[in-house]
Design a protein that fits this description.
With 254 residues, the protein is α/β, with parallel strands linked by helices. It has a single domain, classed as TIM Barrel, CATH 3.20.20.370. 40% of the residues lie in helices and 15% in strands. It contains eight helices and nine strands. The strands form two sheets. Strands 1, 2, 3, 7, 8 and 9 form a six-stranded parallel sheet that branches. A three-stranded antiparallel sheet has the order 4-5-6, with no helix packed on it. The longest helix is centred in the middle third of the chain and has 17 residues. The chain is globular and about 45 Å long. Bound molecules: zinc ion. The site of zinc ion (ZN) has 5 residues, from β1.
Length: 254
């Protein structure tokens, strides 16, 4: 008997979900729902830039738990998100942490103990909201080797980087390049539109497509329209699901 074709999936994630970006996140979710996306991975920052924890914001925890109970997933996303500059930073490190990520590589070069401490604090914040994250994704996808060991030791099931989904238990890496937009300057937006158009065609036949949305993407009409139009196109042949749901499918049908 012929084996049934594997389900093709699209994981849409919203990065930097926190009380700071809450209104914008809800707007993005409304637009995604109108396209037919019924499951989203929400990358939650426990204390966004130190402006206040998720558990201290009235209504946020209930909202998050409500989203998870309806099929979304909460993913732990750094603790503060911002990397504290260090006196010992050399030039090469500064180029990576300041230019590439605009200073947001919080888990890029943490040592093991610092990382575990932040992971635990973050987990406690999410628990106070009534949710548990199975995944941890580092800010700007920059997860250093020692910090990654800490993520494993804290019992997370998976992490992702820009071009891979890594499941810790099985040790499997699933290659999949995420679509992601850079909106900090006009020229970046022009490049992003062209690049993501090309990339969406290139990943057309892949088992897993990933769309990574950041709240500032919604400030720019052309970016917002492209994200929604590519999402609609992908949903013609794919099921929207969270990372967690997608990994469960891979476990059941390796
Ligand atoms: Zn982020």
């Amino acid at each position: 008997m012929q084996k049934a074709a594997k389900t093709q999936a699209v994981v849409v994630s919203i990065h930097d979900v926190s009380p700071v970006t809450w209104d914008r996140t809800r707007e993005i979710l409304r637009d995604l729902e109108s396209c037919g996306v019924d499951a989203v991975s929400l990358l939650v920052i426990p204390d966004h830039h130190g402006k206040g924890t998720v558990s201290a914001c009235e209504g946020f925890g209930e909202w998050l738990a409500g989203r998870v109970s309806r099929g979304d997933e909460a993913v732990q996303h750094g603790y503060f998100h911002r990397r504290e500059a260090r006196a010992a930073d050399g030039l090469a490190k500064r180029v990576v942490t300041e230019s590439y990520t605009a200073g947001e590589g919080e888990f890029f070069d943490l040592d093991y103990d610092e990382a575990r401490e932040k992971l635990r604090r973050g987990r406690a914040e999410l628990a106070a909201c009534g949710v548990r994250a199975e995944g941890f994704i580092a800010p700007a996808w920059l997860l250093g080797a020692r910090a990654e060991e800490a993520v494993k030791a804290e019992g997370f099931d998976y992490t992702t980087r820009i071009a891979v989904v890594r499941e810790f238990k099985s040790g499997r890496d699933f290659s999949s390049r995420s679509l992601v937009w850079s909106v900090r300057a006009g020229w970046r937006r022009v490049c992003s539109l062209a690049w993501n158009h090309t990339l969406a065609v290139a990943v057309g036949g892949a088992p897993l497509c990933r769309i990574g949305i950041h709240p500032p993407d919604w400030d720019h009409g052309a970016i917002r329209r492209q994200i929604l139009s590519l999402t609609r196109g992908m949903l013609a042949g794919r099921r929207a699901m969270t990372y967690q749901q997608w990994l469960t499918l891979q476990r059941n049908d390796p």
